[in-house]
Design brief:
Rossmann fold; six-stranded parallel β-sheet; 2 domains; extended; 306 residues; alpha/beta
Length: 306
């Protein structure tokens, strides 16, 4: 998925999607054509184990049984597509679950804006840019609580489901006996459905908030600040680094020290094979004015080519 699709959810009406011939007129409350209380849940992901497709396969029939007005749009391709097809056939959900297959990046926004809720069932996730794009398109987000996902959106824009028992929601002796990931995903989806049906989620407000949250200029400044902090930190000797690593634990500290020693020996061998003075360095003194000038000349070249 790509950032160009992050545009206002109410800026235009959708043309008919090649995979889904239903035209949805985008209103502030995102009313679907099926009925006033109908809710569409969209999933756009590679259909693989790491993306939690097994959890999705187990959850969809439960949601369809519990909520008669809910339908699913599933976009993506992968080795787990067969299991989704089998699930749809087994439970006779052909009119409730639409499998779109592979979706081109330029069509992702058109698919997102046909739905009310974006569902992510990943078992691992570093950041989850798909969640950010869905929220910017005006969708309420339901996601598994893994990796860096809890840091992406504010709590009023997302509902979390646990993939493993953490002992926080229930007493330990109770949680160990009743916890089931798919049940918690159903709970999170039901919470999202209630928020959408009760008008507690405003797509346009969500889009406006996301526009203010993330900006590439701010990301660059923060990244630059991290590098500056690292460069400004005092350089420690090998002995100091070994002592600091040793304090990490009785066994872990020894392991880290051994790894550090092996790394130093490896770098010493590289230094002997390819001496530092034989490496060509590129020294360029950049500043904001030079960067702006280069950017301007690049844009001018593109304009002339067009």
């Amino acid at each position: 998925m790509s950032f160009p699709m992050l545009s206002s959810p109410s800026s235009t009406s959708l043309a008919q999607h090649p995979y889904q011939p239903i035209t949805v007129c985008l209103q502030p409350l995102r009313v679907c054509l099926f009925s006033f209380f109908s809710v569409t849940i969209v999933v756009i992901s590679r259909l693989a184990y790491r993306k939690g497709v097994d959890l999705l396969v187990a959850t969809i029939p439960l949601i369809c049984e519990r909520f008669a007005s809910v339908r699913f749009l599933v976009g993506g391709d992968g080795p787990k597509l067969v299991e989704l097809l089998q699930m749809r056939e087994r439970y006779q959900l052909h009119d409730r679950v639409d499998l779109l297959g592979s979706v081109r990046p330029v069509d992702v926004r058109d698919v997102l804006t046909q739905a009310h809720i974006y569902l992510n069932t990943s078992l691992t996730e570093a950041f989850g840019i798909g969640l950010l794009e869905a929220a910017c398109a005006g969708l309420y987000v339901v996601s598994t609580k893994v990796g860096g996902v809890p840091e992406v959106l504010p709590p009023e824009m997302i509902s979390f489901a646990r993939t493993e028992e953490d002992g926080k929601s229930f007493p330990l002796h109770v949680a160990c006996t009743i916890f089931d990931p798919q049940i918690d995903v159903v709970r999170a989806i039901a919470e999202g459905i209630r928020r959408v049906q009760n008008g507690l989620h405003d797509p346009q407000a969500a889009h406006s908030r996301i526009k203010a949250f993330y900006d590439w200029a701010l990301v660059t400044e923060r990244t630059d600040a991290v590098y500056d902090a690292v460069l400004a930190s005092p350089e420690r000797t090998l002995w100091e680094r070994l002592k600091r690593s040793r304090r990490l634990g009785t066994f872990a500290g020894l392991i880290y020290c051994c790894i550090m020693i092996v790394d130093c020996l490896f770098f010493a061998v590289l230094e002997w094979m390819i001496p530092r003075q034989d490496i060509d360095y590129v020294d360029v003194d950049w500043d904001l004015k030079k960067a702006a000038a280069v950017r301007g000349s690049c844009l001018l070249s593109l304009y002339v080519v067009r």
